[in-house]
Design a protein that fits this description.
4-stranded antiparallel beta sheet; 314 residues; elongated; Alpha-Beta Plaits; Rossmann fold; 6-stranded mixed beta sheet
């Protein structure tokens, strides 16, 4: 399968500081590709190189086969970008913003009228098409920015923290719209700090830390790589067992305690649940809650990044 985006030893230096260090990845048609990393890890710099805002120091990337260094204008014809802060034209109406964006991309008005109407309906802006962008809330402006990007008919959509700080309704509509468009073949490059959002929306994610890609895989596969971070959580009603009793349960690698609630880290949660019940029966202990928890995408993120070491979690 041919890659829609391919980064080849993509590097950016600022003086002696290496912001992005020989990054390589491929993104295929119809993927929602999540790009995750701590602040300062190199996410924004990578996106700025891919979208033509800054040039790489070394290496390159291709978008639909066009080299971003040798064919920058051609590579940009395939993409649209929605930044974290919506930069719509405040003195134009919602509808005028869409028509202007189409015109700037050389799209005749008659060719995009139907699509513009559809996008406004999809993102809950149809009744506001005559309103000036200036009077819109942050969430509504972000929806408008997404509409304006999509009306140009891009093959690849870059989303930078698309729901950061937005209201619940705008967040829901944006996620739904992106999912609908993705099902129709749109390829999406998503940067986000929201691990829940990434787990819900992305078919694959890459984690970047200190300028280097440290992991790339579907979210579920990444979770499986840290199966030791699964845990059984048990809360006791009255008396609690000794710490040593819980640590001695076969399959338990670590025990964490918070008052009467214990987390038993294990690769064998089913076996540990059975042993916890047996232990409680033997010692006459009451259990009020007993549940199994798989690693979250946030657990994966912390495992693979320096944030883990800084917070003492590894």
């Amino acid at each position: 399968m041919k890659a829609v985006i391919e980064a080849k030893r993509l590097t950016r230096k600022f003086g002696n500081f290496v912001a992005v260090d020989h990054v390589e990845f491929k993104i295929y048609q119809g993927e929602v590709f999540g790009f995750l990393g701590p602040n300062g890890a190199g996410k924004t710099t990578t996106v700025r190189m891919l979208t033509g805002v800054i040039d790489p120091t070394e290496g390159t990337a291709t978008i639909q086969g066009h080299d971003i260094r040798k064919e920058p204008l051609l590579s940009r014809t395939h993409i649209a970008v929605v930044p974290e802060e919506a930069n719509v034209y405040l003195d134009l109406s919602v509808w005028q913003n869409l028509m202007l964006m189409a015109e700037l991309h050389g799209i005749a008005r008659h060719r995009c009228l139907q699509e513009a109407e559809r996008l406004l309906e999809l993102l809950g802006l149809a009744e506001r098409k005559r309103q000036k962008a200036r009077v819109l809330s942050k969430g509504l402006r972000q929806r408008l920015m997404l509409c304006a990007a999509l009306v140009t008919g891009p093959e690849v959509l870059f989303l930078d923290e698309p729901t950061s700080g937005l209201d619940v309704q705008s967040t829901k509509l944006i996620r739904r719209a992106v999912s609908d468009l993705n099902r129709n073949g749109l390829t999406v490059f998503l940067t986000t700090h929201n691990m829940s959002e990434a787990g819900e929306m992305c078919s694959r994610v890459a984690i970047i830390d200190k300028g280097c890609i440290v992991a790339t895989d579907p979210p579920e596969k990444l979770r499986s790589t840290i199966s030791s971070r699964q845990y059984v959580e048990v809360r006791f009603a009255g008396a609690v067992p000794g710490h040593n009793d819980l640590e001695s349960i076969p399959g338990v690698s670590q025990v964490a305690v918070d008052s009467r609630t214990f987390r038993l880290y294990t690769k064998l949660p089913g076996q540990v649940v059975t042993e916890v019940v047996r232990l409680a029966d033997r010692k006459g202990l009451g259990i009020t809650d007993l549940s199994n928890h798989k690693p979250s995408l946030e657990d994966v993120f912390l495992h693979f990044t320096s944030e883990c070491k800084e917070r003492g979690l590894q």
